[in-house]
Each structure stands twice: as C-alpha cells, then as structure tokens.
C-alpha cells in the first residue's frame, strides 16, 4: 500500500466521519477529532467518564498523521502511519464497525437556471493479503461507472480530489443506474481475482523452499528415533501452518458516489 493511498484513505475516513481536516499536506494531515471519534480510537475511557460525570467541557484530540516520512521536508511531529501499523489497522476495524458502505454526492455550486447531472459510480477498496512465513498486503481501489461499465483503478485517489457531501446539492439530477450495484461488485471481484492470478507467485515457491529446508532440519534432529515424541508432531504441524501459502481478500469499505 503506497503512502498516497494511505493519505487518500485517511482523508476519506475522517471526512465521512465529520472530523475537520485542519491541514492537508502532501505527506501528512492534521485532523480534529469529533467526540465520538475520540471515544472510538483514542482509548481514554476514564477521561470521558470523568468528564461526563462532572459536566466538563469536552476536548477531543487533534492528531497529526505522517503518511510519507521519507519525503517530509518540514519538521513535523506526529504519528507515522503505514500499511500494517496498529493505527491503520484500528481505522480499518472502525470502518467495519461503523458500516463500510456510504452514499455521497459531489458538491456542486448553485448556478441559477442550470442543472448538473451526476453519474453513479460504485467504489470498492480491497485489501489483498499474501500469507506464508512472511506477510505482504496490497490495497487495491476500483471504481465502476454504473451507466457505462467503465472501470477506473486508483479510484480512492480520484475521490480525494472531489468535494463530497452526504446530501445532494440543489439543482442536481442523479442518473438512475443501469448496472445494478451487486452486478458491478461481481465484476470488480472478478477483476481482483484476475489480478491475483496474473501476479508474480514466486513468493509461494520461495516459502515452499524454506519449508523444505526447515523440514529437513526437523527430520534430521529426530533421525533414528523410532517412537517420536508428541513434540515432533506439534513442531511439524506448526511448521506446515507457518509456511502454508495463502491469499485473503477483504473489502475495507465501499460506496455509491454520484459524480459530475
């Protein structure tokens, strides 16, 4: 998952949850949490319990997330966030808990006497995880036009440049979709499956070679032992599980977006 993908994901996540973006730099963002979001991700229940019992003034946290520390020129203090980091995993889980599907509209300036047509797009963010004794994860963002069937990759980055709202602007008309979202999702799933099939799978072959090497060591250690102890079977099973090559596909979130 590239830094710009993480950056776009953070912007969308906090915008959709009504957290004000105080500063949006190319390599970091500064965000003002809402009370609800502070309670969800900041892990300070005693603070909120005390505040509510004393009718105190709430002061939700401001956070700075550094999404690309290698390209950061300014002296910015904040939390470095990258794929696999605990914070990003926490936000993924929060997305699932709060509902991973949204419906949003591109905000359009009100021009007297004109009506803007908005086209429906289905957007889906996939996480592809490659597991063996080593782990690799990729975020894949796709959008499909529900009128024409056109598919765009990197759709998350495109959405980050669009001014979105949960309510329709005045003088806009939403085209009714021709392709049903469930059919569109099936097509996107097929694209992901095709991507995986065409990907380089030498990682699985290399994992198998490492498994064979460690297995030979294990067999050598117990060579000549007629009645092998239980720990031998336990070690062998653990080794098989550790090196087993497998792929998991998760949908992080998605939505129906009406765009110009």
What does this structure look like?
It holds the Pfam family YqhG. InterPro entries: YqhG. It comes from Sporosarcina psychrophila (Bacillus psychrophilus). Helix content is 39%, strand content 28%. It has 260 residues and is α/β, with parallel strands linked by helices. It folds into two domains: 1-99, no CATH class; 101-260, no CATH class. The strands form two sheets. Strands 5, 6, 7, 8, 9, 10 and 11 form a seven-stranded mixed sheet that branches. A four-stranded mixed sheet has the order 1-2-3-4, with helices on one face. A hairpin with a 3-residue loop joins strand 6 (116-131) and strand 7 (135-145). The protein starts with a helix and ends with a strand. The model has no long low-confidence stretch (mean pLDDT 91).
């Amino acid at each position: 998952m590239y830094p710009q993908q993480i950056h776009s994901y953070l912007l969308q996540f906090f915008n959709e949850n009504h957290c004000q973006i105080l500063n949006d730099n190319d390599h970091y963002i500064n965000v003002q949490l809402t009370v609800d979001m502070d309670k969800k991700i900041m892990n300070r229940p005693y603070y909120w319990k005390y505040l509510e019992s004393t009718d105190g003034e709430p002061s939700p946290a401001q956070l700075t997330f550094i999404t690309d520390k290698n390209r950061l020129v300014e002296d910015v203090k904040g939390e470095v966030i990258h794929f696999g980091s605990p914070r990003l995993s926490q936000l993924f889980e929060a997305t699932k808990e709060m509902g991973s599907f949204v419906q949003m509209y591109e905000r359009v300036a009100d021009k007297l006497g004109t009506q803007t047509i908005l086209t429906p797009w289905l957007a889906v963010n996939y996480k592809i995880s490659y597991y063996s004794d080593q782990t690799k994860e990729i975020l894949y963002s796709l959008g499909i036009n529900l009128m024409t069937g056109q598919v765009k990759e990197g759709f998350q980055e495109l959405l980050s440049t669009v001014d979105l709202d949960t309510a329709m602007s005045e003088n806009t008309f939403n085209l009714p979709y021709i392709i049903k979202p469930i059919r569109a999702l099936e097509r996107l799933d097929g694209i992901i499956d095709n991507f995986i099939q065409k990907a380089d799978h030498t990682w699985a072959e290399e994992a198998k070679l490492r498994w064979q090497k460690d297995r030979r060591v294990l067999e050598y250690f117990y060579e000549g032992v007629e009645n092998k102890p239980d720990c031998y079977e336990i070690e062998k099973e653990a080794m098989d599980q550790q090196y087993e090559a497998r792929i998991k596909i998760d949908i992080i979130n998605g939505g129906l977006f009406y765009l110009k």
